[in-house]
Amino acid sequence: KLLKADERTSHIPVILLTARSSGADKIEGLETGADDFITKPFDAKELQVRIKNLITQREKLSTYYKTKIASAINAENLQLAGQQIASMDEKFLKKALKIVEEHMADDQFGVENFSTEMAFSRMQLHRKLTGLTGQSTSEFIRNIRLNKAAKLLASNSGTVTEIAFQVGFNNLSWFTRCFKEQYGMSPTEFTQE
Fold first, then answer.
1. Angle at 66 between CA 62 and CA 67, to 5 degrees
2. d(CA 74, CA 47)
3. 187/150 Cα distance (integer angstroms)
């Protein structure tokens, strides 16, 4: 229950392995936030299959969150579907997105500042973001900036240089390289599409 209530660990799948086998015990265990419940004696192969299934589900959820974050214009637009457990992850991602948005133009805003604002250590934040989105902390920040840049470029909200500075890139060639990696074309080509 503590693991699932803690923002730092809520994304970690939990399987209860117990001798308690009544239906009430199983319901109680699942209500506390466990992702699965296995009674003793258990088959090791069954445990491996359940672990594999939970990992597969987390990978799908990670892809889902990554897609939703990429398409969100801002934290208010981030609408994530999910269960009670995922709602903590949803709040975490909305908070993370909002913090990056608030510091969008600050080219000095990086992993250290982000982890401080999120009230996580660098490693905890890295694990949490990687677990939820499949992105490192720096990739998360950069991708949000590039998504904002793409939206600004698509709406002709300024020159490529102005937009690069507006989204926190102080080096135009680095902005162009990152943008090309993400979108497969340069910012100039993107505006001409």
1. 120
2. 40
3. 8
- Find where tokens 């660990």 sit: 9
Distance CA(60)–CA(168), nearest Å, equals: 30
75 pLDDT more than 90: no
pLDDT score, position 33: 80
Residue 19 vs residues 22, 26, 79, 144: alpha-carbon distances, Å: 9, 11, 39, 46
pLDDT at position 133, please? 84
DSSP alpha helices (H): ranges in the chain?
Answer: 2-5, 23-31, 44-71, 84-102, 111-118, 122-133, 137-154, 160-166, 172-183, 187-192
**Are 91 and 76 contacting, i.e. CB atoms less than 8 angstroms apart?**
no
| DSSP track, 109-150 | --HHHHHHHHTS-HHHHHHHHHHHHS--HHHHHHHHHHHHHH
The predicted structure's pLDDT at residue 81 = 42
CB atoms near residue 83 (< 10 Å): 8
| Residue 70 zone, left/alpha/beta (φ > 0; ψ -120 to 50; rest) | alpha
Residue 153 structure tokens: 């470029």
